[in-house]
Amino acid sequence: MVNTGKPSKGCYMCRSRRIKCDEGKPSCMRCQKSKRVCPGYRDAFELNLRDETKSTKKKMSRMMNHRSFVDGVTTQFDSQHELINSPEALLLTAPITSANLNIYDTFVPPWSSFTTNGHSPRSSISSNSSGDVSTSNTSISSQSMILHSRCLSRHLSTPIDQQAACFFLSNFVLLPEQGVLRGYLEFMIPHLTDERPNPAFLSAFSAVALAALGTRPNSKALLPKADITYVKALKKINTTLRDPKMASEDSTLTAVLLLSFFEQLTAPRLNPEAWSSHVDGAVALLKARGPDAFQSNTGREVWNTVRAMMAIQCIANSRKVDLGVEWWMSVPAKDDLSQQFASLNIRVADLRWDTDNATVLPHALENYEEVLRILRRAEDLEREYVEWFNKLKGNWECKSVAWINSTDVMDLTTSLVHPGRVDSYSEMWMVYHHNIGRSSRLFIWVTILRCVAWLCDSRDYRLTPEYTKAQTVCRQLIEDTVASVPYIFGWNKETDPLMADNSSFACGMNDTTTVKSLWGIFVMWPLFAAATSDFVLPSQETFLRARLTYISETLGIYQASVLLKATIRVPSLYIDRAKMSMNIHTCREKGAEGLEFLAGSPKTKHKSRPSLSDTSASPTSNVKSTSPVYFTTPEKEPYYTDHLNMNPFIFSEDVGFASDRIHEFMSFTAV
What we know:
Blueprint: H1 12-17, H2 29-33, H3 44-47, H4 54-66, H5 89-93, H6 102-106, E1 125-127, E2 133-135, H7 142-153, H8 160-172, H9 189-192, H10 199-214, H11 223-241, H12 244-247, H13 250-266, H14 274-289, H15 297-317, H16 324-328, H17 336-358, H18 365-390, E3 399-404, E4 420-424, H19 428-456, H20 465-488, H21 517-531, H22 538-553, H23 559-565, H24 572-582, E5 587-589, E6 595-597, E7 640-641, E8 669-670
Antiparallel strand pairs: 1-2, 3-4, 5-6, 7-8
Helix pairs in contact: 8-10, 10-11, 10-13, 11-13, 13-14, 14-15, 15-17, 17-18, 17-19, 18-19, 19-20, 19-21, 19-24, 20-21, 20-22, 21-22, 22-23
């Protein structure tokens, strides 16, 4: 076999032309100079795959059908096994590590009698009667290593379904080993090794595995097959949900969760709203079963995963959380810090929902009280978040390990670092909690400023002390988010042990040189929240959007491309939109025809407000409100104004809208 040396990392065009590629990103200069379209590069996963000649494939096929791969064990294989229809790919492709020996110990394929000459390797993940997943630090046995090497040697050309499955397991399924806060999606492993697995779960797993590999560069040909499998999975899940017993199984809930991952990977190629619909489906299954069904270790992991996805979905869409905080917190997290963190995020979602409804109300007296209540809630929530951050000690803390000069960064669109501080963390779960907390605090300050702007009415909210404080706090939060990016994307981790991540995944070697796709999902929302803030610096925005582009184009998580299209600024966008809708509550009396509403428009001209000394002025005359408490309504209710024709909200350095003294400056008088 020729070309068995180190594979070329050049682009497809240069390799086909047999010329040296300069490996420029995103396209090489060779192609640009020759006015050719650079087709891109093979990713690290593809470089590790070696196709065999047809004769070798036939030879290996005969060996698979007629030879035993373990001394004393005779098995019969089909020429092409799909991992999704039988879980043997875990046996054929997963490495023997202290985290997945159970695959070799507990997995007994239905088509063979699996023994190891009386010796059974010990498992580091085992399932008890309640379905809990427990871990141990058992060493790797030499016999298991021999078994694994022989499995790989007889499978030199791996079917694409098995490649996709191993790719998904090695990029999204985090194992709960020692030194890690918890795993992620590891509760699906027992469902893969069931003797009679749930068909809906297997179809969903097949679809998301094909999508995970298909969205990577140079693997787009897999996406049509992923779409077909996705449709099949939807049909099987709908059939499963008609059976009350099957609908109450963890495997069915896990299948729905996997479909939500499918939508994150493929959006917006199919349906941008499908991700939310699958999250809603998982929430509905939780509601139907109730908290008591999720009190086991595995049940808590499933519950916490759904709860975290639901919280981010509600925050992003400003949706109210169903059933309230207490119901969602009835299944506890692994530790008190995680429990408080989940509770705070749910309350942020409810706060955004109430803010959206309150800041579009007309300036009536009762509405002022409602906006003030929301403002106070936001301030209380911000204080609780600050207290939560202050509790983060030990493994929860972040450490500053480097400082990057501006001269060290030539191109922010390709750099892994931004000029300034670089922070390190003990593991990825810690940076996840830090960044989600920072993004939630950014949206809390969005709420505070929206309430302040509503109370200001025609005054500029940027002159208030709340805005000054928001500048300081939000810029620090954005800076902290930017400082976490190098750790997430593996900057300098080969030389600096503080930047290394030692997470273990369910398949593949623990390769610390590659960026796992799961980290892209973890950091996607915080990057977006920071990049769209009014307080982000231009260089920071360029850097953060470049990382979102990397998540979309390289890691294959297309949901990041949806976020990139949202070129917005908050809270200014919400405030401007609310002011545009405010004018609809201004009205005028038009003869005997009654009141006619004037729609808010930039072209609308308002007449000056009548003086209080002018007794001939009518409350229903055409007026322009210069006070935040001045308004008229279609019901001809008395409009309210302040004494001496002054704005009741006084702007000063020591008194802000957050102060209880605000009522000292509010004086409403019926005219």
